[in-house]
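Possible regression after last week's pipeline update?

I re-ran a chain I had predicted before the update to compare outputs. Posting the input and the new output here so someone can diff against the archived version. Not blocking, just want to make sure nothing changed silently.
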Amino acid sequence: MKISEHKTADDYDDLIAVWTDYFNAILKADPPFDPDVFKALIASESGFRLHTPENKIAFGIAQITKQTWTILQDPKGEAKDFIFNDIRQKDLRDPNIAIPMGIRWLIYKSTRATAKLGRQPTHEEIILEYKGLLKSKSKYKKKALESYRKYYGKLKSK
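New output (post-update):
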């Protein structure tokens, strides 16, 4: 699972695998998520950097927004079937916190993409929903998808 241009990419494989398996099991993800989908998402979002100072909207390795961070901690909110308690915004720079939150959010976004599309979404459509671009007409949508495809393709060609 190597993405050569990101020196720390493989440092998180076990963490990604464990949390993907965990959320696949407790949330009964159908079909189960492939850890490579999330790894390629991280590569396209943050390049495995723990702190991205140029981005004031999203934080940490999984580029979680303030809005997502709030939702994932709301016991009455959209992701109420599994919430994260007492996470501070600065904690999103810790991959041990950001990776499980990001995987949880990705699985939630799969549900949202299914509702929007009226069918089972592809992994690319789920990635676009995570990035808030599924129904977007933005020119950034194509660029974001190309970046994700590049990294996902590298992971699958090994």
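Follow-up from reviewer: compared with the archived run. The chain has one domain: 9-156. Marking as no regression found.
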